[in-house]
Amino acid sequence: MNKNAKIGGGGLHHIALRAFDFEATVKFYTEGLGFTPRHSWGEGDGRVIMLDSGDGNYLEVFAGGKAPVSDEGSYFHLAYRSENIELAVQSAVAAGAVVTVETKEVVLGDNPPTPVKIAFVKGLNGEIIEFFQSTGDNQL
Q1: Which stretches make up the VOC domain (predicted)?
Q2: Which of 20, 56, 23, 25 is nearest to 38 (CA)?
Q3: Around Cβ 103, how many Cβ atoms within 10 Å?
Q4: Backbone angles phi, psi at 70, to 5 degrees
Q5: Which of 3, 35, 93, 96 has the most neighbouring CB atoms within 10 Å?
Q6: Domains defined along the chain, listed by start
């Protein structure tokens, strides 16, 4: 993958999520999706934990969340790379997620055409999670 010369590196580092149920959210991402706790701090509604998704990209979970402003939760969606979309969706559902878009194959753009598989689930806090798998020669 190329690095972003404008910002000196680039790529996803972390997405921040304010959890309605901190313990359940951490359990969902660690046990359900296999994320690894890396750093944590604070107490009560001031707790924060950084969870490594597996390749150095993090989900930062904050305690003390309130009801979401919209049906999509605190952000539109976040996408995680996957080498096996079906297994990712299965793991998420087993941990309490709800499928919102079944696994499907799509082609992104035409210069060059980039075939991918995608699926979406809704997590425990109303967050929309996309699983994204590059399937062709043009890896994204």
Answers
A1: 11-134
A2: 56
A3: 15
A4: -135, 170
A5: 35
A6: 12-65 (3.10.180.10), 73-139 (3.10.180.10)
